[in-house]
Write a structure and sequence with these properties.
By secondary structure, the protein is an all-beta fold. The chain has 3 domains: 65-168, Elongation Factor Tu (Ef-tu), domain 3 (Beta Barrel), CATH 2.40.30; 175-271, no CATH class; 275-384, Immunoglobulin-like (Sandwich), CATH 2.60.40. The protein contains 1 helix and 30 strands. Strand 19 (254-261) and strand 20 (264-271) form a beta hairpin.
Length: 391
């Protein structure tokens, strides 16, 4: 068997009773791109998968701020900054802090190693090139035009930067950052086998994956039941243009994309859990319950999903959490309580059975003040069909 093996595929291989393996080499794809503060990418907040055969790690969604230590700077034909496993990508906008060293024979005084006109910590820089542990910069986006497009940033090399770090900048809010919008590049060639992996390594409220041009998605999404002994939720899609997922915990989920035909992508998604969690507290000022810090408002609860309320906050001691039906009768089906209100590790878990009636609304029954004679009843959730994720 004589076959020149390329990076993409194996084809037209004939095996006989005499096999000679020649020019055989295997290439490992270990490319990883870290996406911090989710889509600090473009004005439309959309991440384009522009590096083929690569794993994209979506992370640092829980904080708008991402910062990391700079340990060394090197001045050669370009200024190189060292920050081990920094996770920056080309195009990120950052600020620099404490790029300095101690003065000789001093333990308290420092020398700033940035050029004199760049010592204001509000100056922003664009990442130009990256390796796993290093990156280069150019000033960018500053209101004073003379402070832009400068690559001569540091005065001299130093291997002992003291307390130096960079901070990724963003104008997006935390809510915006938790919405993942991703575009798959349009593939119009016959070079099949291109793939992308997407790993969500932090909290996200929703995910949207879109094809471009004439490309279509075919595949499935697997959502695990980690609280019940029951088959996973599997949803298939055939020749669709979008995958849209909301109201599901996406942390630790994995999505694999591979080009199997011209203009056709196969997608395999794995979501760890079908459990959605909320936190109940009591606001002593408002004298009322709060869910996730907000006033009680009606929510959509979907068939085949589990909804868990954390009731362990000490403000809830001796309060009540009762679910009632449309007739104001206490409702217990598929509702489990563990522990007591206001005590550690206590929760109420609600499973939405497939037999539930669509658009049926359940209420929460409680007392705003413990000594009240009357109960308050508010709509808490309405039954909805399991969402359709492919469209």
């Amino acid at each position: 068997m004589n076959e020149n093996v390329t990076e993409g595929k194996y084809s037209n291989i004939e095996v006989t009773n005499k096999t000679v393996i020649g020019n055989l080499n295997f290439k490992k794809y270990t490319n990883i791109v870290y996406i911090n503060n989710i889509l600090n990418t473009d004005a439309n907040n959309i991440l384009l998968l522009d590096k083929s055969n690569t794993t994209y790690m979506i992370q640092n969604l829980s904080s708008v701020i991402y910062k990391k230590t700079i340990t060394e700077i090197e001045k050669t034909n370009k200024d190189i900054f060292t920050s081990n496993n920094h996770n920056l990508k080309v195009g990120d906008i950052i600020k620099l802090y404490n790029i300095q060293r101690l003065k000789p024979d001093s333990t308290t005084e420092y020398i700033n190693l940035l050029q004199d006109d760049l010592q204001d910590s509000n100056i922003t820089y664009k990442v130009i090139t990256t390796t796993r542990n290093t990156f280069t910069l150019k000033t960018f986006g500053n209101s004073t035009s003379s402070l832009n497009n400068i690559s001569n940033i540091i005065k001299t090399s130093n291997k002992n930067i003291d307390s130096g770090y960079f901070e990724l900048t963003t104008t997006k809010t935390l809510t915006e950052n938790k919405i993942c919008k991703i575009n798959i590049p349009n593939n119009t060639t016959d070079d099949l086998g291109i793939f992308y992996n997407i790993i969500i390594n932090d909290d996200a409220t929703s995910l949207e994956i879109n094809t471009l041009g004439d490309d279509k998605l075919t595949g499935y999404i697997n959502i695990g039941y980690n609280e019940l002994i029951k088959s996973d939720i599997i949803q298939e899609g055939e020749l669709k243009t979008k995958l849209s997922i909301t109201d599901i915990p996406l942390k630790n989920s994995l999505f694999e994309l591979i080009n199997i035909e011209k203009n056709k992508w196969f997608i395999k998604g794995n979501i760890f859990s079908n459990k959605i969690t909320h936190t109940l507290t009591y606001d002593t000022t408002a004298e009322d319950y709060k869910i996730d810090g907000e006033n009680i408002s009606i929510k959509n609860f979907y068939k085949n999903f589990i909804y868990e309320f954390n009731i362990s906050d000490t403000s809830l001691i001796d309060y009540l959490f009762i679910i009632t039906d449309i007739n104001n009768q206490n409702y217990y089906k598929n509702i489990m309580q563990s522990g007591e209100m206001g005590h550690p590790n206590s929760f109420i878990r609600i499973y939405i059975d497939p037999s539930e009636t669509l658009d049926y609304t359940y209420k929460i029954k409680y007392k705003k003040i413990k000594t009240d004679e009357n109960y308050t009843q508010l709509p808490l959730y309405t039954i909805k069909a399991t969402p359709t994720y492919f469209s």
